[in-house]
């Protein structure tokens, strides 16, 4: 059973990376509801609209895609492969503070 789960996880990760590569390469933009540059702009826009209260906190609930996209500037990631290389390292039930230029990103999920 563990072997089956591991095989499925590996197959899913390969399929996920292939799908992301297709979406982000720009050659198929007309086939997607949102382009990769549009997605990044939407994530960046959402980050700029977060309230900035000194000493305060803002909770944001989202999935791995926007979290990975939000982390790209902090990590200096220029391309999609670098952004999504971390997608499977984001642990559920984690809190991950990532200091940015003017904000902190805390990733918190629950197992």
Can you offer a commentary on this structure?
With 111 residues, the protein is mainly alpha-helical. It is 49% helix and 9% strand. The chain has 4 helices and 2 strands. The chain has helices at residues 2-24, 36-49, 64-75, 80-84, and strands at 95-99, 104-108. It has a two-stranded antiparallel ribbon with strand order 1-2. The protein is globular. The protein starts with a helix and ends with a strand.
List its traits.
111 residues, mainly alpha, two-stranded antiparallel sheet, 4 helices, 2 strands, 49% helix, 9% strand
Shape: globular
How many β strands by DSSP?
A: 2
Largest sheet: 2 strands, antiparallel
Give the topology string: H per helix, E per strand: HHHHEE
Extract low-pLDDT stretches: none
Main sheet strand line-up? 1-2
How many helices? The count is 4
Distance linking N and C termini: 21 Å
- Rg measurement, Å: 16 Å
Mean pLDDT, all residues:
76
DSSP strand content: 5-15%
Set down the secondary structure blueprint.
Blueprint (H helix, E strand, L loop, with lengths): L1 H23 L11 H14 L14 H12 L4 H5 L10 E5 L4 E5 L3
Antiparallel strand pairs: 1-2
């Amino acid at each position: 059973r563990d072997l089956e789960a591991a095989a499925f996880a590996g197959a899913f990760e390969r399929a996920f990376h292939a799908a992301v590569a297709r979406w982000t390469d720009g050659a198929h933009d007309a086939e997607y509801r949102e382009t990769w540059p549009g997605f990044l702009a939407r994530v960046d826009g959402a980050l700029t609209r977060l309230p900035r209260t000194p000493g305060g906190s803002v909770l944001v609930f989202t999935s791995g895609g926007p979290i990975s996209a939000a982390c790209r500037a902090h990590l200096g990631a220029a391309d999609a492969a670098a952004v999504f290389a971390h997608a499977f390292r984001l642990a559920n039930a984690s809190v991950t503070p990532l200091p940015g230029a003017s904000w902190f990103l805390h990733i918190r999920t629950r197992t």
